[in-house]
Amino acid sequence: MTKVLCAIDASTYGPSLCDHAAWFAVRMGAGVDVLHVLDRGETGAGPGLDLSGSVGLGASEALLEQLAKADEVRAQAAQAHGRAMLEGAARRLNEAGVAEVGLIHRHGEVAQTIIELEPGFDLVVIGKRGESHNFAEGHLGSKVERVVRGSVRPVLVAPRVFMPIARAVVAFDGGTSATRALDHVLQNPAFDGLPVTVAIVGAPGAPRDERVAAARARLTGRPGAEVKALEGEVEAALKGELRQGAGDLLVMGAYGHSRIRELIVGSTTTAMVRTGKVPVLLFR
Questions:
Q1: Whether 25 contacts 130, CB under 8 Å
Q2: Segment of 6-10, 37-41, 138-142 carrying the highest mean pLDDT
Q3: 237 and which of 75, 76, 110, 232 could share a cystine (Cβ 3.0–4.6 Å)?
Q4: What is the pLDDT of residue 15?
Q5: Contact of 28 with 2, CB cutoff 8 Å
């Protein structure tokens, strides 16, 4: 069965992540597994503080026992909170029309857990910032970088607010990952009936003309699809094409022939994910 992996945490992205996962799942006829990972700091299973030397500084055994119990209570509360979030996500997904919902509660490191699980899924949905950076608008979560670098599946990086997707804009530079992204849009049932714009950025000339021709050849027979040749700097041109907050989805390769080749630090990919308000579907 086609499945979507939706990774949630205690950030304000939770409802949006569920709504994005539901949008794809319903159109693909897929189930959704919701993942919540408790890291070692939350569960008390990590190294924590070494209090053994405190005894020599006057700390009583009773106090150390109280601290240990406090850690246990905190871990139990974190586990209960995680279960409650998963159950709330399941209700939201069911209400959005997803019939098959699974819940996964794990301990460990978030990005590594996603990378271990995602070969069994067709799409991974994550938020662009986690709970520790809820309102850091200029920050791209480090876990996002690790997931995108390590993933073998398409990764949807969702913004804080969900808008029903009304158009897909594919950034196409002719590279392997961009070609894979375009083929996915043309073949995946999630995009059936959805207007598709293939955006090709570059100065007028033979290289851009070749990419335009390659894209148009792939769009043959696809109603509602168009190719646009754009000039200027890649990030600015793409942002100018996207209707922020109007239901657009940006689809792009994580690597390519141009500045898009650089992933994360200083790259077009990073800038589009970090500062844009549209969901971004990334392909390696």
A1: no
A2: 6-10
A3: 232
A4: 95
A5: yes
Rounded Cα distance between 272 and 4, Å, is 23
User: What range defines the domain where residue 23 resides?
Assistant: 3-42+78-158
pLDDT on residue 40: 61
**Total domains, the chain:** 2
CA distances from 146 to 109, 111, 113, 139, 155 (A): 11, 6, 11, 14, 11
Asked if 98 and 32 count as a contact pair (C-beta separation under 8 A), the reply is yes
Contact, 81 vs 10, CB < 8 A? yes
CATH number at residue 16: 3.40.50.620
Identify whether residues 234 and 136 lie together within a single domain. Answer: no
**pTM of structure:** 0.83
CB of 143 closer than 8 Å to CB of 24: no
Rounded CA separation 251/280 (Å): 6
3-state secondary structure of 166: coil
Residue 115 · residue 151 · CB < 8 Å = yes
Q: What pairing do the DSSP bridges indicate for beta strands 155-158 and 280-283?
A: antiparallel
Three-state DSSP class for 260? helix
* Strands 196-201, 167-171: pairing kind: parallel
Structure-derived torsion over alpha carbons of residues 205, 207, 213, 215, reported in degrees to the nearest 10: -130
Find the distance separating the first CA and the last CA of the chain, reported in whole Å.
23
Same domain, 198 and 218: yes
Per DSSP, the three-state class of 238 is: helix
Q: For residue 256, what is the enclosing H or E element? A: none
Average pLDDT of the segment spanning 271-284 = 84
Give me the percent of the chain exceeding a pLDDT of 90: 55
Domain-located, residue 174: yes
Q: What is the pLDDT of residue 75?
A: 77
